[in-house]
Amino acid sequence: MAKTLVKLAEQIRSDDPIVKYEGEGVEVLRSVCKPVKQVTQEHAELVARMEEIMHEANGIGLAAPQLGILQRIFVYDSGDGLQAIINPVIMQRKGEQVGSEGCLSMPGLYGDVLRANEVVVKGLDELGQPVRIRAQGLTARVIQHEYDHLDGVLFIDHADPDTLHYASPDSPEGEDPELRE
Ligand code: ZN
Question: N or C: which end of the chain has fewer CB within 10 A?
Answer without folding.
Answer: N
